[in-house]
Give the backbone structure.
Amino acid sequence: MTPWVLRILLANGIVFLLQMVMPGMIENLLAFVPAQVLTRPWTVVTYMFVHGGFGHILFNMLTLFFFGIRTWLGADNLPPPPKDPHDDHGHGQGHGHGHGHH
């Protein structure tokens, strides 16, 4: 798990606990209402930390845990794909087949 995925998981957990302790207050402070975006611009970001119940946060956090590493690392930083066993030129995928290499 990346540090950013952990931070987002923790932030969601903290906001959810605050929602349980102060019902209604956190939702009113952080929820996004399009008609109020000019007077409450922070809600464009903070709405994603507000959850509608335990099942909602559970499945959102499981999804983040399992897929977050690919989102945060990006395709350029992931391990390379396995070598193609049928590539007898040792070039890996996408190199040298029919492209006129000399």
Q: What stands out?
A: DSSP finds four helices and no strands in the chain.
